[in-house]
Amino acid sequence: MKENKKIFIYGGIIGLIGAILMKLGNPGNMGICVACFYRDIAGALGLHRAEVVQYIRPEIIGFIFGGLLAAIIGGEFKSRGGSSPIIRFVLAVFLMFGALVFLGCPLRMILRLANGDLNAIFGLLGYILGIYIGIQFLKKGYSLGRSTEQTKTSAYIIPIFSIILLLFLILKPEFIFFSTEGPGSMTAPIFIALILGIVAGFILQRSRICTAGGFRDAMLIKDYHFLWGLLGIFIFNLIGNLIFNFDTFHISFENQPVAHTNQLWNFLGMVLTGICSILLGGCPLRQTILASEGDSDAGITVLGLIVGAAFAHNFQIASSPEGATLNGKIAVIIGLILVILIGNSVVKNAQKDRKEKEEVF
């Protein structure tokens, strides 16, 4: 119970930070959204040209800085990776497709619920189903292989990338794009957002909070430890919204910021996100923190998320408040088929390897 209380408080701090960032200027129901923030960064770098979602989000930079600091202090910063990088990249791209059809990462799904957005219920149900499907692959032996020690250089690539992003954000060179309207123009003050991101990143690294991991452990091994962290995020964000954002708090399906009411695709988008999160070994938030610790597999995943966000807007896959697009619906269906094929293929290879080892012995 002591550990559960601790992770509940850790999650609560993350939830409060989300409410504060929204109060300070971040888009409605989007104090923190890892998928949306990577989408904005992709736009700022010119990887897509959707002018309303282009901004280098300092919160992401803060997550990486905070995770790096916590990992160094805890002696956990280690260069590792080499576990099926191409598969991880593809899964990350389709994870982003699912998230942007829903219009939010799993963390934003919780924050949307905490501000009264009932559309997120369908996203939550889809996410849980996706995680359940992913667990069936785990039970059959799904694994992308063990990470091995890598050169030290690879461990620093994502932290160095985040430093470059921070310089671009501060210096604002002409080749970086910034929204003048829409969600990309709604921002908390840079250095406050950066500091709050560092605090969140530090806590997330120490606590190991993962939205996918919380539901996975509860269903697979009846361990509810991480669910306490998710509950803390929800409750403290709800309290924070009632204190700081009461003027925008309303319980409804309609007129929710950066959301749509096409419930089938809210559901299916998050089914895809849930499966991919399990097959990758963590949700987008967890992958970001792992990348800050020197995990190059997570670093590949982060790059896949950024590329996926660019594709989602260049190919009109991302939804809008009007609903899911035709291309978005097609991408989700293709994604569901593809990731299930990937899962089955990896399982078959694992079973084949196991059988060969048994024959040897």
Automatic annotation (TrEMBL):
Residue stretches spanning the membrane: 7-25, 60-77, 89-111, 117-135, 156-178, 184-204, 225-244, 264-285, 297-318, 330-347
Statement: the UniProt record of this protein carries the keyword Mitochondrion: no
Keywords associated with the record: Membrane, Transmembrane, Transmembrane helix
InterPro entries referenced in this protein's UniProt entry, alphabetically: Seleno_YedE, Sulf_transp_TsuA/YedE
Transmembrane helix as UniProt keyword: yes
NCBIfam families given in the database record: seleno_YedE
Protein known as: YedE family putative selenium transporter
The species this protein was found in: Anaerosalibacter massiliensis
